[in-house]
Amino acid sequence: MRPSSYTSAIAFASLFATTVASPVHGGSGLAPAPENIERKDDPTKNKYFHEPGGDDQLGHYDERYFHGIVSYEERTDTQFHMIRAYLKFFNENGLDTWIAHGTLLGWWWNGKRLPWDWDLDTQVSGATLHYLGQHFNQSIHHYVSEDGETKRNFLLDVNPWIWQRERGDGMNVIDARWIDIRNGLFIDITGLSETHPDTNPAVWSCKNYHRYHTSDLYPMRESVFEGVPAKIPYAYDKILIEEYNEKALVLTEYEGHAWDPSQKEWIKTQAQVEKEKEEAEEKAKMKAEEEEQKKKDEDGKQKTE
């Protein structure tokens, strides 16, 4: 069930569309220096990235670009093009990045995202993170799919707290995001740094307590994710088992999806399809009732006038 290995001989030009970086109006393009950041007594006020809510759905949109929860189909389409644009940008600029967490688990199964995932996850080195902050912060990246039919704009936004390489008050564990500005869906980008080289050398950490040995990460493996060249941590199996346990590598039904070995795809179960149909019908019924009540209220208002 693990994807086949791919060599670096894949023709990059045939896989990618054009991406151009340009600054957002008013953005400086630089990550603020530590002394320029005002620390507030209320930790929640130190938080840079904001989401419209804290649950599985609302917690995975950037508040600035949120216009409502998107459908399953739109989320699938958004994430497919979003990761392709992201990987292309890093490859074109000679910057290292690799897929992580649930995104890495999706790669293990079939080289694709897990269809129930609310967001995507990648990692970079601390040095790359600071380079992004200095040269690409708040830049817009224009993406066109290979067939020319899909055009998107993505914002690369780097958290000004990237200089802080330990958890701190816990409000800024995400170092950067690659955001679809149409709907607010994003890729979380976290940096790994050797935070204690004197007492704990060769151990790389993010601000959310994930730790890796150098030999877990390097040398990176060349592979493909969603049809695009991507880098994978060397000891990906060890990393996945430590994070999700062995069950995640063998469980064939999860979150309303079942693994189809013949298609090598996660497919919605019939129960999930029926559940979503009932939810859609209930939602449509409630909307119709609201509209009917609104019409009655308007008619009543006109009569009194």
Descriptive key words:
305 residues, 3-stranded antiparallel sheet, 2 domains, 7-stranded mixed sheet, 21% strand, globular, alpha+beta
- Which percent range fits the helix content? 25-40%
Structural class by SSE content: alpha+beta
The count of DSSP E runs of length 2 or more, i.e. the number of strands, is 14
Going across the biggest sheet, name each strand in turn: 1-4-5-6-7-3-2
Gross morphology: globular
Task: Indicate how many domains the architecture comprises.
Answer: 2
How many helices? The count is 7
Q: Taking all residues together, what is the mean pLDDT?
A: 87
What is the beta-strand fraction?
15-25%
What order do the SSEs take from the amino end to the carboxyl end, as H and E? HEHEHEHEEEEEEHEEHEEEH
Tell me about the largest β-sheet.
7 strands, mixed
Q: Regions with pLDDT < 50 over 5+ consecutive residues?
A: 1-35
Distance between the termini: 70 Å
The radius of gyration over CA amounts to 22 Å
